[in-house]
Write a structure and sequence with these properties.
- The chain has eleven helices and 20 strands.
- The protein is an alpha/beta fold.
- The chain has two domains: 243 residues, Carbamate kinase (3-Layer(aba) Sandwich), CATH 3.40.1160.10; 166 residues, VC0802-like (2-Layer Sandwich).
- Strands 3-6-2-1-9-11-12-10 form an eight-stranded mixed sheet, sandwiched between helices.
- α2 runs antiparallel to α3 and α6 packs antiparallel against α7.
- It starts with a strand and ends in an 11-residue tail after the last helix.
- Bound molecules: adenosine-5'-diphosphate, aspartic acid and magnesium ion (MG).
Length: 413
Amino acid sequence: MALIVQKFGGTSVGSLERIENAAKKVAKAKEAGHDVVVVSSAMAGTTDRLINMAKQIQPVPNPRELDMLLATGEQQAIALFAMTLQKTGYKAVSLCGWQVPIITDDVHTKARIKEIHTKKIKELLAKGYIPIVAGFQGVTKDGEITTLGRGGSDTSAVALAAALKADVCEIYTDVDGIYTADPRIVPNARKIKKIAYEEMLELASLGAKVMQIRSVEFGSKYGVRIHVRSSFKDEEGSWIVPEEEIMEKVAVRGVTSSDKEVQFTVVKVPDQPGIAAKIFKALGDAHIAVDMIVQTVSVDGYTDMSFTVSETDAPHAKEIVEKIAKDIGAEKVLMDPNVAKISIVGLGMRSAYGVAGKMFEILAKHNINIKAISTSEIRISCLIDRKYTELAVRALHEAFIEDESINFVGNGT
Ligand code: ADP
Ligand code: ASP
Ligand code: MG
């Protein structure tokens, strides 16, 4: 008998029929003799709808109230899920984050899980119940309701699997696994059987929304076996596993893009020590993550400084950066939302050479200008004009994944 955490995403619980279909997956595991803990997202479209309503009242809604509002989406879904299981004779009970409890820090709308109390869930399991836990939400130690950022139910599920030492965390979604690129953009994308945590971490942080990044961090830290699979089919999906289990370390495992970023440029910044620290420290203090930093060559004692932040953080970042720009005597702050980040990721990149050159060559061949570049040991990202996103992703996928004649590892291409 195993302990399985099954997480169902928004589409998988998008209607009463779909909840019924999801409940069948739970029942099947239960009938096979396993203990099951369910984590559910809000029904598809609910979170977006709630955010839109809040934004009609305040363009930047009060974060505490926004969390209070958004948590209702998951609360609705878990109650419907529990009723559906009860109707077919199973003992099920729904639990909000605060009832588990899942304790988070107090950073509203992007809270981090600090601790999960497993006593209640274990007691329910011992009595034969199926606990249905609300994804995406938690509670601070002071009793305030928080949410974990968009896509946060993945993180609830993996963190819960880690806390319960579950044998597997199954992520049921609307694709049948993790692909070499978003199958909605690249029809030729291939399903990946096994992907390393490190690779999935990069893909998730660079736009592949199939898994929220923090869920992969938890998986990697606590060794949770994650199986991403379809809620509509029965076949095996993709496994996220430790690097040692990956036999073939290809230079490019996947291609991904993100058009959820905004580029800021602080124009004519005095080229002095401490200026960059001032800008980025203030953003860090406001819990805003920064990427793709570029500083131009100094001319007459001034430089331009560019960086990207996520679209959701952009209004807040704008306020902060404009204030600092004034303080440090910079000329102005420009904001460009028409950018996209495209990235290639693969463990084999560590020992390969020629990969960056090939990437830039492909973009150049399609007349796509590169505005900024950033790299890690196992990925290369380029910031480009947003209108070329799909073209770039397809071209890179074709060259690095579909064209099997290219092998970068050590062949000096
Ligand atoms: P859920 O609501 O189940 O959490 P999401 O919409 O958050 O589902 O994530 C699934 C979606 O992720 C897919 O529909 C797909 O379009 C997208 N996606 C992006 N990149 C990838 C990838 N590399 N492999 C699979 N799906 C991807
Ligand atoms: N309902 C939340 C969202 O739409 C969390 C999730 O689905 O994972 O972002
Ligand atoms: Mg998701």
